[in-house]
Automatic annotation (TrEMBL):
Its EC number is 2.7.1.170. The keyword Kinase applies. It catalyses: 1,6-anhydro-N-acetyl-beta-muramate + ATP + H2O = N-acetyl-D-muramate 6-phosphate + ADP + H(+). This is Anhydro-N-acetylmuramic acid kinase. Belongs to the anhydro-N-acetylmuramic acid kinase family. HAMAP family: AnhMurNAc_kinase. Pfam families: AnmK (PF03702). It comes from Occultella gossypii. The lineage of its organism: Bacteria, Bacillati, Actinomycetota, Actinomycetes, Micrococcales. The keyword NAD does not apply.
Length: 401
């Protein structure tokens, strides 16, 4: 089955496009990675997506417009790929995450928070599948995360099955550094997965605000700055980092105002210029490394993907703390396209009626879900399990029950 995957991560940097040929027999899934690229967002639309994210207030009219326009842009990216690479059987769209609802918990009176803190309650990816189907002419699997949340899981990260099948032969941490960073620990007992916290997002925001550039190319700005130990200590004290896996987070927590608010609340000054970039880069490297060491003490290698692999300062911070750091390219999966190929795999599994997450500890899935669920929704809907209709419907007969 030829599957075209479309996705955009929390960085909102581009629409990732990947074409894969998949089949399976006797439990062996084969994914041939045919082509991948990224398509740029229309600049005004990207600006409006970023402007709608927290800490900004937004309104439902804008959410509706974004849903349509993101769907149209994804549809255009899909149509472009079909024109360039040939026909496909199925399109899979992750859409653009605009909110990932994780319970913060209520104070329990004893200085802690209620037990429901950290559970995921909902997640919203925009990009109307109807527009994608209209522009590609193919059925679209979308809304890949909600079913896992409805089964009690985090709904993110969704990469556990791919990592377990691909890297599970020895103790390995798979690490993806997008706007948010996530890990999957495989090859050493039950598969565990979760978001470690910010990947590039806080750094991207600070660099955009401070320099007007979109990101710290190659980590050069951070390399020219000095880590501010006091500011770093305040940021490291965020309770998110101490929470056990599985866990997930997003830009509604680590938003554009997060650093100023956290440091302001502690009465610590925001480091200036390159020192801020150095401090935020260090925050990402430390929180990732500490999460891997805490939960994957026997980890032999760390296989890194996502745009963060191109930040040399960040990668040096990881290499100084973790064993066997390699990029996913070295093992045959392009670092910038891993997530898009992941969604191609998940879409294929869903089309085959197979669950998309790895088994975790006990009876749980790696995401924390209570059961193995088939991920996603299909547009247009598959025929219901009844004899196929042959004639167009022209009359409705209402009968009393
Ligand atoms: N040359 C580079 N140097 C440093 N960072 C980079 C470079 N290229 C991309 N990035 C970082 O990677 C991010 C995009 O990574 P990506 O994996 O697409 O994240 P997401 O999944 O959140 O969209 C950019 O926002 C930027 O922070
Ligand atoms: Mg991206």
């Amino acid at each position: 089955m030829r599957v075209l995957a479309l996705s955009s991560g929390t960085s909102v940097d581009a629409i990732d496009v990947a074409l894969a040929d998949l089949d399976d027999a006797e439990g062996v899934v084969r994914m041939r990675m045919v082509a991948h690229t990224e398509r740029t967002w229309p600049a005004p639309l990207r600006g409006r997506i970023l402007a709608a994210l927290p800490p900004a207030a937004t309104d439902l009219g804008e959410v509706c417009r974004l849903d349509t326009e993101i769907g149209q842009s994804f549809g255009d990216a899909g149509a472009w790929a079909i024109e360039a690479w040939g026909a496909v059987d199925l399109v899979v769209s992750h859409g653009q995450t605009v909110h990932h609802w994780v319970e913060q918990g209520t104070p329990d009176g004893g200085g802690g928070v209620s037990d429901d803190a950290g559970s995921a309650r909902g997640t919203l990816q925009l990009g109307s599948a109807a527009w994608i189907a209209a522009r590609t002419g193919r059925p679209v699997i979308h809304d890949l995360r909600s079913a896992d949340i409805a089964a009690g899981g985090q709904g993110a990260p969704l990469v556990s099955l791919l990592d377990a099948l691909w890297l599970g032969d020895r103790p390995t941490a798979a690490l993806n550094i997008g706007g948010i960073a996530n890990i999957t620990l495989v090859g050493d007992g039950p598969v565990r997965t979760g978001d470690t916290g910010p990947g590039n997002c806080l750094l991207d925001d600070a660099v955009a605000a401070g320099t007007g550039r979109r990101f710290d190319a190659d980590g050069a700005l951070a390399a020219a700055g000095r880590v501010d130990p006091q500011a770093l200590a305040v940021l490291l004290a965020d309770p998110y980092y101490a929470r056990p896996l599985p866990k997930s987070t997003g830009r509604e927590t680590f938003d554009g105002g997060y650093v100023t608010a956290a440091l302001g609340a502690a009465g610590v000054a925001v480091p200036s210029g390159n020192d801020l970039f150095a401090t935020l880069t260090e925050l990402t490297a430390r929180t990732i490394a500490e999460a891997i060491i805490r939960d994957g003490a026997r980890t032999e290698r760390v296989v890194v993907s996502g745009g963060g692999v191109r930040n040399a300062t960040l990668m040096a911070g990881l290499r100084s703390r973790l064993p066997g750091v390699v990029t996913s390219d070295a093992l045959g999966l392009a670092a910038e396209a891993k997530e898009a190929y992941l969604f191609a795999l998940l879409g294929y599994l869903s089309a085959r009626g197979l669950p998309g997450t790895a088994p975790g500890a006990g009876r749980r899935r790696a995401t924390g879900a209570r059961s193995a669920v088939v991920l996603g929704s299909l547009t247009p809907p598959a025929p219901a399990p009844c004899p196929p209709g042959r004639d167009p419907v022209h009359t409705l007969v209402l009968e009393e029950g």
